[in-house]
Amino acid sequence: MAIEGIWSYAPDSGHVEGQELTGYTVAATDGTIGHVDRQADHFGMRHLVVDTGVWIFGRSVLVPVGVMTAVDTAERKIALSCTRGEVKAAPRFRTDSETMDRVYLASVGEYYHRLPPREPTTT
């Protein structure tokens, strides 16, 4: 996948353009990580801000939509192509202003782009 692809919904993910994902549960390949607090598209870099709750001490994480493998609207659940540890190791999300910081977003995109490819999982 080209680095630009990390910011685009995969055509086979089940995502429908304009679909509101706020509140959906987010699951990595090895377990749930939290729920979508909000979704954003700044500079063409589409991403989700995921509230992890107590999993990583109430911290939120930023996840590019290109790592989504499936959207289950009936279950309100999103599956990712990465593990919980990989999400936790991503560049730390600290403030909402980072969702509009090109340098921060680029570092997140590069991190996820470098992860090893995996077989898609279902929700």
Automatic annotation (TrEMBL):
InterPro entries: Bac_photo_RC_H_C (IPR014747), PRC_barrel-like_sf (IPR011033). SUPFAM superfamilies: PRC-barrel domain (SSF50346). Gene3D superfamilies: Photosynthetic Reaction Center, subunit H, domain 2. GO terms for biological process: photosynthesis, light reaction. It comes from Streptomyces resistomycificus. GO terms for cellular component: plasma membrane light-harvesting complex. It comes from the Bacteria. This is PRC domain containing protein.
